[in-house]
Predict the 3D structure of the following.
Amino acid sequence: MNEDLQANTPAFFTLDGFDGALAKRMLPVIQDALQDNTEAWTTLVANEPNLRERLKSQGLETPDRFNSIRWDQATLLFTSGMAVTNEHLPLQIGERLTRERFGRFPHKDGSALGYFLEHIRPNRSITDNDGEDMYDNIVSLITQLAEGLTEAHQGHQQYESGFGGLQLLGYLTPDEVSDLRKLLAGRSWTVSFDEPLDGGIADVAKHFTTLLKAAERRRVGLVHRRHR
């Protein structure tokens, strides 16, 4: 594809089934290993038999030896945590139309979650009466999913620049998926008065909540990816 055309084409975003709880345990261990402290990685793999078998099934003969792994960090994290079916295929979250409506939002870079964060506001009738924590938790969880693996939060771009264009942006654990779905169903948030797209936030909330419910039914976390 022509590079100029590719640069001007909005990205497509997906929410994929993912073991976010494992990712939460892996991230600090990977960071330590990148600084030559690989003992924690060896211990992690020893204590996580499912992780060990997953990595071995993908061709790593000695997954407990971090320095033997030639994958980039995005590939390592995604391969370790992606949710799969009984046929070992990637687990699809939600219906195709919902995924498409979420995947390319008609504003700026195409990120529905980015738009949502930019244009939600606290509902003061609720947050001024001991509801501030609910709104803050919504923002915190969506921020973690929208950009928790980006340079702004990790201090590097390694999870955004994987093999074959793999770009991981953020993730949630299964418990966080459930918490966020419940919080969004509450009344602690509203829409900014100057929202540029009429009904845009409502549209994002509808499709995003549907995907959260789908992940909750499957009892999986989510990873947010960007595709170009």
About this structure: Residues 13-227 form one domain. The CA atoms of residues 22 and 81 lie 7 Å apart.
